[in-house]
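Priority: medium. Attachment 1 of 2:
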């Protein structure tokens, strides 16, 4: 209703032909909103008639012509349970294939969801009174399901948790645009309207600003340039102030019959004059407009209102309503109409007042972009490439290299833990051969590990990389989500690493035999006995293992045969790493350390 009244006022300003055509379309759009408002009041609380209301909205939007628009009243509940109102403008573009949607809000919800900008002229923050979405698929707006959520707060019993500003700005508008709220909007957007952000949540209690901003948004949708829309806004405010001036002139009679003007009412009128004067100076920046006549009319209007207010009470302190007076220069080409200097409304020297040091040095050095190194998983060879113990060393070294790259780039790459688990599992269950049992008749000729000679550096290389891969595997196995199949793979892989480490440690180097290998395998000088690893807990886990591949079945068989043969060949007191024994450091470890110390 405020918008309709403002349109009637603006129609008295003799606008240009283009502005008059745009005002005609806006007038029809406001009339659609007024008709809808009466229907909303009639169906409030009635669910059945609410459906008829939604159908009428869809019908109105479907019948919009090209360049036609509809100004629809909307609202929601604040957190305090107070009803708040805004407007939603639906505009059909000139081609008729898309719809544009704008939301004008001058109160609650604007602070959280509308963009801000800094105004260098006033050194203050401004916030837009509108947000908009262009080129909306008409099918989204011609679906009554969308309008159900828009008008649910006004018609049905609202819930502050559901029927709030967040529903509109975070759900409904992103649904129309297919993007996040405010995406694509910038402070230089010609369709955004700005006003001071102070008191944004309560400054427009009468919704007068909402009506004016709705008209301005609708005119921008009609294709009028921002400069003409600004002129129309100033004309509207001037005509409203002319109405105030007329009321004051009518009420001012003889002293006995004259209406008394309250001081608070006079203050409100003064603030309106100041706002009108400030808005008029904004027109000076647009050189393509002949604004001198309009500015002179604004000046006459404000001077007249000022004289009338002063005439009401001589006891009031005389106040200056206007900014510092601007001298009008005589026009060179047009009659007696004054011409206003284009620089009059600018603060030319304001930029020299603040100290503006170079702040680029405070930023420091730019961060170097992260480099993601490619990881070549095929560096780890398959079983056809393993012919000698030297090939085993190469395979282990490549596996450690790949796992280290994946570990160091776990924040830049996906699934690095699962990849490391799969690489190590495949290497020990399907690529590297497992040793034959101790005492096997063909062990010295058929076993891959026992049948080949080894040098000290190769033996040390293999043991060291087995240690590194076991560390990688323990980390990733304890980091992945545990499942029955994963637990089986974890047990078999670690058992295979232990079997290969035992077999390699029993080898006697051909160049420089290791003292540990000599004592562990029982080949050192003196009446010594062989040592071994205790894995009795593995047998207890057999009935719970879920084997999912032939490689796991073959590995389980080979590992069990190998460790059972160690149990038959090594005495109980020479078993190492008996972790299920609560005593900790056992007799086997003590005997082996004693022999090594004696040897060294």
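Attachment 2 of 2:
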């Amino acid at each position: 209703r405020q918008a309709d009244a403002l349109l009637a006022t603006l129609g008295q300003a003799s606008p240009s032909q283009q502005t008059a055509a745009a005002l005609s379309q806006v007038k029809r759009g406001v009339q659609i909103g007024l008709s809808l408002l009466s229907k909303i009041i009639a169906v409030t609380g009635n669910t059945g008639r609410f459906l008829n209301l939604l159908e009428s909205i869809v019908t109105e939007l479907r019948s919009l012509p090209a360049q036609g628009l509809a100004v629809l009243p909307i609202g929601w509940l604040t957190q305090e349970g107070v009803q708040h109102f805004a407007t939603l403008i639906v505009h059909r573009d000139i081609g008729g294939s898309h719809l544009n949607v704008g939301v004008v809000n001058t109160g609650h919800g604007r602070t959280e969801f509308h963009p801000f900008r800094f105004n260098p002229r006033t050194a203050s923050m401004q916030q837009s009174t509108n947000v908009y979405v262009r080129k909306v698929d008409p099918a989204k707006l011609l679906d009554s399901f969308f309008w159900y959520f828009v008008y649910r707060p006004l018609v049905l019993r609202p819930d502050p948790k559901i029927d709030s500003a967040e529903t509109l700005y975070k759900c409904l508008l992103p649904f129309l645009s297919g993007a996040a709220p405010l995406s694509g909007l910038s402070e230089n957007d010609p369709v955004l309207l700005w006003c001071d952000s102070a008191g944004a949540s309560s400054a427009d209690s009468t919704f007068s600003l909402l009506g004016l901003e709705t008209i301005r948004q609708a005119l921008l949708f009609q294709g009028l340039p921002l400069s003409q829309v600004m002129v129309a806004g100033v004309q509207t405010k001037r005509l409203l102030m002319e109405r105030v001036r007329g009321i004051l002139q009518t009420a001012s009679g003889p002293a006995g019959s004259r209406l008394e003007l309250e001081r608070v009412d006079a203050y409100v009128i003064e603030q309106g004059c100041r706002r009108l004067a400030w808005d008029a100076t904004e027109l000076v920046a647009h050189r393509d407009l002949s604004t001198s006549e309009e500015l002179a009319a604004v000046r006459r209007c404000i001077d007249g209102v000022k004289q009338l207010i002063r005439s009401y009470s001589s006891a009031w302190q005389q106040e200056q309503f206007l900014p510092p007076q601007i001298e009008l220069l005589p026009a060179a080409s047009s009659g007696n109409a004054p011409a206003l200097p284009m620089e009059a409304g600018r603060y030319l020297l304001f930029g020299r007042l603040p100290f503006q040091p170079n702040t680029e040095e405070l930023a420091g050095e730019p961060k170097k972009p992260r480099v993601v190194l490619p990881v070549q998983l095929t560096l780890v060879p398959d079983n056809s490439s393993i012919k000698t113990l030297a090939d085993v060393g190469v395979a282990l070294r490549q596996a450690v290299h790949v796992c280290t790259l994946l570990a160091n780039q776990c924040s830049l790459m996906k699934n690095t833990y699962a990849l490391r688990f799969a690489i190590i599992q495949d290497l020990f269950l399907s690529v590297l051969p497992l040793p034959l049992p101790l005492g096997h008749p063909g062990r010295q000729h058929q076993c891959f590990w026992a049948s080949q000679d080894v040098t000290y550096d190769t033996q040390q290389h293999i043991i060291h990389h087995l240690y590194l891969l076991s560390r990688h595997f323990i980390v990733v196995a304890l980091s992945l989500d545990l499942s029955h199949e994963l637990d089986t793979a974890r047990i078999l892989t670690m058992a295979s690493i232990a079997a290969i480490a035992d077999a390699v440690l029993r080898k006697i180097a051909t160049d420089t035999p290791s003292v540990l290998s000599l004592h562990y395998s029982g080949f050192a000088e003196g009446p010594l006995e062989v040592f071994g690893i205790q894995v009795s807990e593995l047998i207890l886990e057999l009935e719970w293992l879920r084997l999912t591949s032939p490689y796991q079945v073959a590995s389980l068989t080979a590992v069990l045969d190998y460790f059972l043969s160690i149990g038959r060949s090594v005495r109980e007191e020479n078993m190492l790493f008996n972790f299920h024994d609560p005593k900790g450091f056992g007799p086997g470890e003590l005997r082996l350390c004693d022999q090594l110390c004696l040897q060294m």
